[in-house]
C-alpha cells in the first residue's frame, strides 16, 4: 500500500537526485503502470518539464522522436540501452567502420566528458543533438555497457529501487559516480546493511504495508525499516553496491556462497551470449552445482563460452553444466527481467 505521501516524497527527492529541470524533455517508453515510470513522470511534471510518450517501441519510431522532439533524457531499463547500442553498432558494421569506432572509444577514455560528444557527433545527431542523460533502473546494468555510453558523451545515471519504496532508493550523482554502484541514498532515505548483508530501507517513501496481508507486512516491515530481499554493501562514501537477491543465493555443499548474478555477469560479457541465467542444481546426491542456461544464436559456441567464463570465475563459482534455451527469448517481466522461476521449471524438459 503506497500513500500519496510516499509517492510524492519520492518524486520530489528524485528531482533533487537526478537534477531534472523545467528545460528537460523526456521520452517515455516504460509502462505507465510501473512505479519507476510513474514516479519519474510525477517528478518531471513537478518541475514543469515535458514528457513525450512513444506509441511504438520500434527503433525507427524512437529515433525519429529523439531527433524531432528535442529530447534531453530518458528513463529506461538496461536491456533498452543495449538495444539502442546494438542498433548503433549494426550501423557501424554496415558502413565497415569498426576500426574507427574502436579508436574513437580509446581516445574518448582519455578525453574529459564534456568534450566526448565531439568525437561521436553522428550518434548525438541521431539523438537529436539535445540529449544529456539516461536514467537506468529496474535491472542490473553492466558497467561495460554504461561506460561505453559515457565514452560517447551520454551521461548514465543508475538507480536502485523497489515498488515498496515508491520506488527509488538510491541513484548515482550526476558528476560523481561509478557505474559499478547503484548510487547513494536519495534525500530523506536511509539505508542500512544487516548482518546477513540484506539491504534495509527507511524513509517517507516506504510503503504502509501489503494490502490485507498482515503476515507479509510483519515479515517485511519492522520499526519503519523495509527488508528488500536484496544483498549488498555500502562503501566509505555511502555508495551502494548490489550482490544479488537473497532468495537466489546458492549455498554449496562446502558452505561457500555463490551469487548467481556474479556468474551471469561474466557470461553476459561473452560476445556470443545474448543472455544467461544461472542456477544451483542438485544431482546424484551431491550439493548444488553451477548450471547455466544460455540464450545464444549459435549453440555450437556454448562449450567455448563456458570454458572462457570459467577462466574468469573463482573455483567455487565454476560452471559445471549448461543448457541451451530453445526459444527466441527468455520469459520476461514487463521491465524485461528474466522470469527465473519459469526458466528453472522448464529445465528438466530442456535437458531430456
From TrEMBL:
Signal peptide: none
Annotated source species: Dictyobacter kobayashii
One record GO biological process: fatty acid metabolic process
Name of the protein: AMP-dependent synthetase/ligase domain-containing protein
Gene Ontology molecular function, alphabetical: medium-chain fatty acid-CoA ligase activity
Domain of life: Bacteria
Residue ranges annotated for the AMP-dependent synthetase/ligase domain, each copy included: 1-211
Pfam families: AMP-binding, AMP-binding_C_3
SUPFAM superfamilies: Acetyl-CoA synthetase-like
